[in-house]
Amino acid sequence: MKFWRRSVSGVTRMDIRKLFCSFRFAWRGIAHGFRTEQNFRFHVIAAVIAAAAGWVTGLSPSEWMIVILLSGGMFALELINTAIERVVDLVSPEHHPLAGQAKDAAAGAVLVFAVASAVIGFMIFIPKWLNLLF
Ligand SMILES: Nc1ncnc2c1ncn2[C@@H]1O[C@H](COP(=O)(O)OP(=O)(O)OP(=O)(O)O)[C@@H](O)[C@H]1O
């Protein structure tokens, strides 16, 4: 029983330390993306503008959820794109058609999500702005 308790608390302690390490690594990845990727910084600025516009315009809780989900999704996708670029550069420092296709596909995924986010953003904001004007 004593052994069982000790082993359970040991596992718990180890898991918590591991969890903190994971957060530290994840934060390092976000900071690296922000530092090295101009597109990531652009998406951060776009999210800040969207949040400011939402605050000025007045959004419902569900509209805020959509804006937050789209902004978070955009950041996450940009980080995945950065990860793919790094791995491609690692495994294929020389030019190779497959390496190019992998990078192009990852960049395409970011573009698709960015366009969809922009369209949804306009669908939320434009009717409200038209209501304010007329
Ligand atoms: N190893 C490679 N082999 C073939 N084509 C490549 C390779 N690396 C890059 N390319 C081509 O060049 C394009 C730009 O690559 P790059 O690594 O500069 O990506 P990027 O999207 O501009 O990245 P960053 O955001 O870091 O500037 C890719 O989308 C791809 O078409």
TrEMBL record:
Enzyme class, first EC level, given as a word: transferase
Cofactor comment text: Mn(2+), Zn(2+), Cd(2+) and Co(2+) support activity to lesser extents.
Residues annotated as binding substrate: E78
Subcellular location: Cell membrane
Binding locations of ATP: E37, E85, E94, H95, H96, K103, D104
GO cellular component, one term: plasma membrane
Keywords noted in UniProt: ATP-binding, Cell membrane, Kinase, Lipid biosynthesis, Lipid metabolism, Magnesium, Membrane, Metal-binding, Nucleotide-binding, Phospholipid biosynthesis, Phospholipid metabolism, Transferase, Transmembrane, Transmembrane helix
GO BP term (any one): phospholipid biosynthetic process
Keyword Phosphoprotein: no
Amino acids binding a divalent metal cation: E37, E85
A Pfam family assignment: DAGK_prokar
Annotated transmembrane regions: 40-58, 64-84, 105-126
Family note: Belongs to the bacterial diacylglycerol kinase family.
Name of the protein described by the UniProt record: Undecaprenol kinase
Encoding gene (name): dgkA
